[in-house]
Amino acid sequence: MSMRRLAEHPVLGEKIYRVLRQSILQGKLRAGQRLREEELARRMGITRTLLREAFRKLESEDLAVRIPRRGVVVADISEEKVGEIFAIRSVLVGLAARLAARRSHELDHKGFRRILAEPAQKAKSCDLDRVMVASRKFHRLLAKASGNTKLEEMINVLRDHIERFRRLTFPSFPMRIEETVKEHRGIYEAIAQGNEKLAEQLGREHIERSWERYIEKIH
Fold first, then answer.
1. Which of 24, 55, 98, 167 satisfies CB 3.0 to 4.6 Å to 200 for a cystine?
2. pLDDT tens digits for 173-211?
3. CATH 1.20.120.530 region(s) of the chain?
4. SS in 3 state form for the chain?
5. Does domain 3-74 correspond to CATH entry 1.10.10.10?
6. What is the pTM of this model?
7. Start-end ranges of CATH 1.10.10.10 in the chain?
Protein backbone atom coordinates (compact mmCIF):
# COMPACT_ATOMS: atom_id res chain seq x y z
CA MET A 1 0.00 0.00 0.00
CA SER A 2 1.48 3.35 -1.04
CA MET A 3 1.38 6.54 1.00
CA ARG A 4 -1.19 8.05 -1.34
CA ARG A 5 -3.51 5.07 -1.02
CA LEU A 6 -3.39 5.39 2.75
CA ALA A 7 -5.48 8.52 2.51
CA GLU A 8 -8.28 6.41 1.07
CA HIS A 9 -8.46 4.07 4.06
CA PRO A 10 -9.15 4.34 7.78
CA VAL A 11 -5.58 3.87 8.96
CA LEU A 12 -4.34 2.74 12.35
CA GLY A 13 -0.95 3.62 13.79
CA GLU A 14 0.44 0.17 13.03
CA LYS A 15 -0.35 0.49 9.32
CA ILE A 16 1.29 3.91 9.17
CA TYR A 17 4.39 2.53 10.86
CA ARG A 18 4.59 -0.43 8.48
CA VAL A 19 4.25 1.73 5.36
CA LEU A 20 6.98 4.12 6.52
CA ARG A 21 9.18 1.22 7.60
CA GLN A 22 8.86 -0.50 4.23
CA SER A 23 9.59 2.76 2.41
CA ILE A 24 12.83 3.11 4.38
CA LEU A 25 13.88 -0.52 3.86
CA GLN A 26 13.24 -0.29 0.12
CA GLY A 27 15.13 2.99 -0.20
CA LYS A 28 12.10 5.05 -1.17
CA LEU A 29 12.85 7.20 1.88
CA ARG A 30 16.59 7.85 1.76
CA ALA A 31 19.13 8.06 4.56
CA GLY A 32 19.23 11.61 5.90
CA GLN A 33 15.84 12.49 4.43
CA ARG A 34 13.70 14.52 6.78
CA LEU A 35 10.32 13.05 7.71
CA ARG A 36 8.24 16.19 7.70
CA GLU A 37 5.44 15.62 10.15
CA GLU A 38 2.94 18.14 8.78
CA GLU A 39 3.49 17.14 5.15
CA LEU A 40 3.27 13.38 5.80
CA ALA A 41 0.15 13.77 7.96
CA ARG A 42 -1.54 15.71 5.16
CA ARG A 43 -0.50 13.30 2.40
CA MET A 44 -1.52 10.23 4.37
CA GLY A 45 -4.75 11.72 5.67
CA ILE A 46 -3.96 11.03 9.33
CA THR A 47 -3.47 12.86 12.59
CA ARG A 48 -0.02 13.97 13.69
CA THR A 49 -0.49 11.98 16.89
CA LEU A 50 -0.63 8.71 14.96
CA LEU A 51 2.36 9.77 12.89
CA ARG A 52 4.41 10.50 16.01
CA GLU A 53 3.65 7.02 17.31
CA ALA A 54 4.99 5.58 14.06
CA PHE A 55 8.10 7.76 14.34
CA ARG A 56 8.77 6.43 17.84
CA LYS A 57 8.64 2.85 16.58
CA LEU A 58 11.01 3.66 13.73
CA GLU A 59 13.41 5.28 16.19
CA SER A 60 13.30 2.20 18.43
CA GLU A 61 14.45 0.10 15.44
CA ASP A 62 17.22 2.56 14.52
CA LEU A 63 15.50 3.29 11.21
CA ALA A 64 14.94 6.93 12.11
CA VAL A 65 16.65 9.38 14.41
CA ARG A 66 15.52 12.64 16.02
CA ILE A 67 17.92 15.54 15.47
CA PRO A 68 17.64 18.86 17.34
CA ARG A 69 16.20 21.66 15.18
CA ARG A 70 15.69 19.23 12.27
CA GLY A 71 13.16 16.80 13.62
CA VAL A 72 12.99 13.14 12.61
CA VAL A 73 15.16 11.96 9.72
CA VAL A 74 15.80 8.57 8.14
CA ALA A 75 18.79 7.00 9.87
CA ASP A 76 22.01 6.35 8.01
CA ILE A 77 23.47 2.86 8.02
CA SER A 78 27.24 2.63 8.26
CA GLU A 79 29.66 -0.19 7.52
CA GLU A 80 30.54 -0.37 11.22
CA LYS A 81 26.92 -0.70 12.26
CA VAL A 82 26.21 -3.38 9.64
CA GLY A 83 29.29 -5.28 10.82
CA GLU A 84 27.83 -5.31 14.33
CA ILE A 85 24.49 -6.52 12.97
CA PHE A 86 26.15 -9.35 11.05
CA ALA A 87 28.08 -10.42 14.16
CA ILE A 88 24.89 -10.60 16.22
CA ARG A 89 22.92 -12.25 13.44
CA SER A 90 25.49 -14.99 12.92
CA VAL A 91 25.09 -16.03 16.56
CA LEU A 92 21.29 -15.88 16.42
CA VAL A 93 21.01 -17.80 13.13
CA GLY A 94 23.38 -20.44 14.52
CA LEU A 95 21.20 -20.73 17.61
CA ALA A 96 18.04 -20.98 15.50
CA ALA A 97 19.59 -23.79 13.46
CA ARG A 98 20.61 -25.64 16.63
CA LEU A 99 17.11 -25.35 18.11
CA ALA A 100 15.55 -26.40 14.80
CA ALA A 101 17.76 -29.52 14.71
CA ARG A 102 16.72 -30.32 18.28
CA ARG A 103 13.08 -30.40 17.24
CA SER A 104 13.66 -31.85 13.77
CA HIS A 105 10.90 -34.44 14.20
CA GLU A 106 8.33 -31.63 14.63
CA LEU A 107 9.30 -29.55 11.60
CA ASP A 108 7.64 -28.97 8.25
CA HIS A 109 10.35 -30.60 6.14
CA LYS A 110 8.25 -30.29 2.99
CA GLY A 111 8.27 -26.55 3.48
CA PHE A 112 12.06 -26.48 3.66
CA ARG A 113 12.44 -28.67 0.57
CA ARG A 114 9.96 -26.57 -1.39
CA ILE A 115 11.82 -23.36 -0.54
CA LEU A 116 15.21 -24.87 -1.30
CA ALA A 117 14.01 -25.80 -4.77
CA GLU A 118 13.37 -22.13 -5.61
CA PRO A 119 16.86 -20.59 -5.43
CA ALA A 120 18.32 -23.64 -7.19
CA GLN A 121 16.22 -22.77 -10.24
CA LYS A 122 17.40 -19.17 -10.07
CA ALA A 123 21.07 -19.83 -9.39
CA LYS A 124 22.10 -18.22 -12.68
CA SER A 125 19.82 -15.23 -12.25
CA CYS A 126 21.23 -11.74 -11.74
CA ASP A 127 17.88 -10.46 -10.50
CA LEU A 128 18.75 -9.38 -6.96
CA ASP A 129 15.12 -9.00 -5.90
CA ARG A 130 14.21 -12.57 -6.89
CA VAL A 131 17.27 -14.04 -5.20
CA MET A 132 16.64 -12.04 -2.04
CA VAL A 133 13.02 -13.23 -1.90
CA ALA A 134 14.12 -16.87 -2.13
CA SER A 135 16.79 -16.37 0.53
CA ARG A 136 14.38 -14.48 2.78
CA LYS A 137 11.90 -17.36 2.66
CA PHE A 138 14.55 -19.84 3.78
CA HIS A 139 15.74 -17.67 6.66
CA ARG A 140 12.23 -16.88 7.83
CA LEU A 141 11.36 -20.58 7.91
CA LEU A 142 14.63 -21.36 9.69
CA ALA A 143 13.91 -18.72 12.34
CA LYS A 144 10.36 -20.04 12.77
CA ALA A 145 11.65 -23.63 12.98
CA SER A 146 13.58 -22.68 16.12
CA GLY A 147 10.29 -22.65 18.02
CA ASN A 148 11.41 -19.48 19.82
CA THR A 149 9.19 -16.54 18.83
CA LYS A 150 11.45 -13.87 20.34
CA LEU A 151 14.49 -15.27 18.55
CA GLU A 152 12.48 -15.38 15.32
CA GLU A 153 11.50 -11.72 15.71
CA MET A 154 15.08 -10.60 16.40
CA ILE A 155 16.51 -12.46 13.41
CA ASN A 156 13.91 -11.03 11.04
CA VAL A 157 14.47 -7.45 12.23
CA LEU A 158 18.24 -7.76 11.78
CA ARG A 159 17.78 -9.21 8.32
CA ASP A 160 15.66 -6.21 7.32
CA HIS A 161 18.55 -3.90 8.25
CA ILE A 162 21.00 -6.00 6.24
CA GLU A 163 18.75 -6.02 3.17
CA ARG A 164 18.47 -2.26 3.38
CA PHE A 165 22.26 -2.00 3.44
CA ARG A 166 22.51 -4.41 0.51
CA ARG A 167 20.07 -2.36 -1.59
CA LEU A 168 21.85 0.91 -0.81
CA THR A 169 25.35 -0.45 -1.40
CA PHE A 170 25.00 -3.05 -4.16
CA PRO A 171 21.73 -2.44 -6.03
CA SER A 172 22.82 -4.72 -8.87
CA PHE A 173 25.03 -7.22 -7.00
CA PRO A 174 23.42 -10.71 -7.16
CA MET A 175 24.72 -11.98 -3.80
CA ARG A 176 26.74 -15.20 -3.55
CA ILE A 177 24.04 -17.06 -5.43
CA GLU A 178 25.49 -20.53 -5.94
CA GLU A 179 27.32 -20.48 -2.60
CA THR A 180 24.16 -19.36 -0.82
CA VAL A 181 22.11 -22.21 -2.29
CA LYS A 182 24.76 -24.74 -1.26
CA GLU A 183 25.02 -23.34 2.27
CA HIS A 184 21.26 -23.30 2.75
CA ARG A 185 21.11 -26.95 1.74
CA GLY A 186 23.90 -27.83 4.15
CA ILE A 187 22.13 -26.12 7.04
CA TYR A 188 18.87 -27.90 6.28
CA GLU A 189 20.53 -31.31 5.94
CA ALA A 190 22.13 -30.91 9.38
CA ILE A 191 18.75 -29.90 10.81
CA ALA A 192 16.99 -32.84 9.15
CA GLN A 193 19.59 -35.20 10.65
CA GLY A 194 19.08 -33.67 14.10
CA ASN A 195 22.76 -32.70 14.25
CA GLU A 196 22.56 -29.66 16.54
CA LYS A 197 26.28 -28.88 16.66
CA LEU A 198 26.76 -29.01 12.89
CA ALA A 199 23.57 -27.05 12.20
CA GLU A 200 24.71 -24.26 14.52
CA GLN A 201 28.19 -24.21 13.01
CA LEU A 202 26.91 -24.05 9.43
CA GLY A 203 24.35 -21.38 10.34
CA ARG A 204 27.00 -19.13 11.87
CA GLU A 205 29.49 -19.69 9.05
CA HIS A 206 26.85 -18.89 6.44
CA ILE A 207 26.27 -15.41 7.87
CA GLU A 208 29.98 -14.82 8.50
CA ARG A 209 30.79 -15.62 4.86
CA SER A 210 28.13 -13.18 3.70
CA TRP A 211 29.82 -10.41 5.70
CA GLU A 212 33.25 -11.35 4.34
CA ARG A 213 31.83 -11.05 0.83
CA TYR A 214 30.47 -7.60 1.54
CA ILE A 215 33.83 -6.46 2.89
CA GLU A 216 35.52 -7.69 -0.29
CA LYS A 217 33.14 -5.66 -2.44
CA ILE A 218 33.44 -2.54 -0.30
CA HIS A 219 37.21 -2.55 -0.17
1. 98
2. 545 677 888 999 999 999 999 999 999 999 999 999 988
3. 79-218
4. CCHHHHCCCCCCHHHHHHHHHHHHHCCCCCCCCECCHHHHHHHHCCCHHHHHHHHHHHHHCCCEEEECCCEEEECCCCHHHHHHHHHHHHHHHHHHHHHHHHCHHHCCHHHHHHHHHHHHHCCCCCCHHHHHHHHHHHHHHHHHHCCCHHHHHHHHHHHHHHHHHHHHHCCCCCCCHHHHHHHHHHHHHHHHCCCHHHHHHHHHHHHHHHHHHHHHHHC
5. yes
6. 0.78
7. 3-74
The tens digit of pLDDT for each residue in 131-153 reads: 778 888 999 999 999 999 999 99
